[in-house]
Amino acid sequence: MFSSIPSLLLLAAGATARIYYAGVAESGGEFGVYSSTATPGTGLPGRFGVDYAFINESTVDVFVDKDKINLFRVAFLLERMCPLEYGLGEKFNETHFGFYKDAIDYITITKGAYAILDPHNYMRYNNPSQQPGSGSVIGNTSDPAAATTVDFELFWYELASRFKDNEKVIFGIMNEPHDMPTTLVLQNDQAAIDGIRKSGARQLIIAPGNGYTGGHAWCQSSQGDEPSADELYKIRDPINNTAIDIHEYLDYDFSGQHSICNQSAPANLACLTDWLKTYQLKAMITEFGGDNNTMCDQYIDQLIQYMDDNDEYIGWTAWAAGPLWGTSSPCCTDGRALGSLEPGSHASDGSPSLYYTVWLKAIQKMVPTNLIRSGISSIYG
């Protein structure tokens, strides 16, 4: 993939490698579209600040000023950015884009942190009403309703054009592609990279694999399709500033739905790490989490320490904070309402939320003290 990088530069990067970016995912921009009947268009565009929202500025302040993180991953829906009447491409809902840009600007300009732009669509477009399964797979030529790979490139060209002068943006190509040919994941990833670079943007890009981009399954077939390891090394970035986007939960089925942690990240990520070394690539783990118990504390510690110990990993975000979670939990609780990673939130019984029992107890203490605070987002920090 990065064969054009001079050998000396690679050696220098390896010699000084560390975690450059650490923080939290902000979930809420994808809210408000569920339909029990999978009806397309449900909740679109939605009421900003009621049905969906991106960040709470006061809690971003807490994360940056008190908890000393430098990265937020901010989810949005393609169908709000590119309404169904327009189709996926370079024509945006400007009101919605303005709301999103305000959030990104607050994180990056006002607070000086970095922000991952996260289209939370599972490599699908046109019906998010029952995510992650609903909607047409982007680039599926057998589905006449599907947006094309070219449409996806045009979308990323336009979005990157609007943020190319903001050095603290990171372009997250897509949240969790799944149940599709891995060759098509590669094609869409490459199209996004091409569109971003054609815009003149030079910031870091993170590219997902198949199978919900799970690190544990990177070298395995996923839903009957080729392993991500067989295809993703073929990605080409003309300026060599693309990393791999990985998700890794710690429960028995890697779904992030269960309260018991029993999956060892060091063991499950070994093949991915070897693959990254072979192809001289970097990765970020942009989703992980756990329940508020001692076992999960230990497994989270192992995961973050594993990233610290391996030069192939440059950053992470925990799942998830967000302004609309209330007492509900984004992961890892067997459906119990224990609150989220949002500062100031509470569980349904009034007890401290996962911000206090997981973030502060198990995750925040692992935030490196030497995170980068300035300069363009890069695999080199």
Describe it:
The structure is a single chain. This protein is an alpha/beta fold and 381 residues long. The chain has helices spanning 7-16, 57-66, 78-81, 94-110, 149-163, 182-198, 265-268, 270-278, 294-309, 354-363; strands spanning 21-26, 71-76, 114-119, 124-125, 136-137, 169-172, 205-208, 242-247, 283-287, 313-321. The strands form two sheets. Strands 1-2-3-6-7-8-9-10 form an eight-stranded parallel beta barrel, surrounded by four helices. Strands 4-5 form a two-stranded antiparallel ribbon. Helix 9 (294-309) packs across helix 10. The two termini are 19 Å apart. 53% of the residues are buried.
Please summarize what this structure is:
The chain is of the alpha/beta class and 381 residues long. The protein contains ten helices and ten strands.
